[in-house]
Design a protein that fits this description.
Helix content is 7%, strand content 50%. By secondary structure, the protein is mostly beta strands. It is globular and about 50 Å long.
Length: 368
């Protein structure tokens, strides 16, 4: 009997140890420090609740100049990461690195101020919007790059100050918003052309792309209200969620009906956002308030408002298991940037990691 009890105790102990090992996760994200010309790899140990910068990679060509690494994305196999170098002379670039070793592989020239981007796992193409922050207020482009050869395949004409590029779950279209023309763009990911545009204004007529082409985009009599800065498609439903940075709202668009279905009033300056991988939550950075909102998408209700460690909240990256959100925070003046780690179950901040100045682009790499 004693032997049986001891054996059961041992089995139970092993089971508990195995369970603990399963749930003890290490998470890795890359974040760009735009004012320090650095990309940093952040490691978070969920078991200990501690996070730190595990590696700093210097990027850019001229040490004496600020070249501004801005957007980040990762190949679907996790072998490569890509960063946009925004402050080119006059054009920016896309740089490719190997994950793990963080070895530089190749680069390609893009348009003026290349910003956010996304990697298409079906085609291996990278879609990068040229935000054109320092250029004239005129229509810009979305550049398409072959991630293998690092050749620029196309420059697709879009609206003024495009931002927030994300690929649909099916990989057939890319979405982004044009900030100064209050528009959502749907790009055919295979034909490399605009399929549809949607005006995001409260009273604006809904027009297709061909009607939009008939308008003179360079006519700035249009005063943008919504000033959308980000778009992210739902992982399983036909919706895209948009940050209305100027109108302080989240805009939900039904991509089948191609119309706005809901608007959520938010805190000041929603900037970036991401839908959780299970489609239940929406995490929104409030750039104007130095805070983050966690939203229940089904109810359309904000579950939590969490203040950040510093001001000027920027990017959002959610882990594949939907447990944590990593938030990049720029800081003000000479302050360092930071990455805040939020527990999406407890709805609270659990750690902060200091980074280089103006932490912006952020992307999840892996968990183990």
């Amino acid at each position: 009997m004693y032997f049986i009890k001891s054996l059961l105790t041992l089995v139970l102990f092993c089971a508990l140890a195995f369970t603990d090992s399963v749930f003890a996760q290490d998470y890795y994200v890359y974040v760009a420090a735009e004012s320090d010309d650095q990309v940093q790899l952040i490691h978070f140990n969920a078991e200990t609740g501690e996070a730190a910068v595990s590696e700093t990679i210097d990027v850019g060509v001229w040490p004496q100049e600020n070249e501004g690494p801005h957007g980040l994305t990762i190949s679907s196999d996790g072998k490569y990461w890509f960063v946009t170098i925004a402050h080119g002379t006059p054009y920016g670039q896309l740089w490719k690195y190997e994950t793990g070793t963080n070895k530089f592989i190749a680069k390609v020239e893009l348009g003026m101020f290349p910003a956010s981007m996304d990697y298409n796992p079906l085609t291996g193409l990278v879609y990068v919007v040229n935000f054109n922050l320092h250029g004239d207020m005129k229509p810009s482009t979305l550049s398409v790059v072959d991630s293998e050869t690092m050749m620029r395949l196309a420059d697709i004409p879009v609206g003024i100050m495009p931002h927030g590029t994300r690929i649909s779950p099916e990989g057939d279209v890319a979405y982004h918003v044009s900030m100064m023309t209050d528009e959502l763009y749907e790009i055919d990911a295979y034909q490399l052309e605009v399929k549809r545009t949607l005006s995001l204004g409260q009273d604006s007529p809904q027009m297709d792309h061909f009607q939009k082409e008939a308008m003179d985009h360079s006519n700035m009599n249009h005063s943008p209200v919504e000033k959308p800065t980000w778009a992210d498609p739902h992982p399983s439903k036909p919706f895209v969620y948009i940050a209305g940075n100027g109108s302080n709202e989240i805009i939900e668009v039904d991509t089948k009906k191609w119309e706005i279905t809901r608007r959520f009033n938010t805190a000041k300056g929603p900037y970036n956002l991401e839908v959780s991988h299970n489609g239940k939550l929406l995490v929104v950075s409030y750039k104007g308030e130095g805070a983050v909102g966690i939203w229940d998408l089904e109810k359309g209700e904000e579950l939590a408002y969490i203040e950040n460690s510093r001001k000027v909240t920027h990017g959002v990256a959610i882990t594949p298991d939907n447990k944590f959100a990593f938030i990049s925070v720029e800081g003000i003046g000479g302050e360092p940037g930071s990455v805040d780690i939020i527990d999406l179950k407890k709805l609270e901040r659990v750690d902060v990691v200091e980074t280089g100045k103006q932490a912006g682009g952020i992307v999840f790499w892996k968990q183990k």
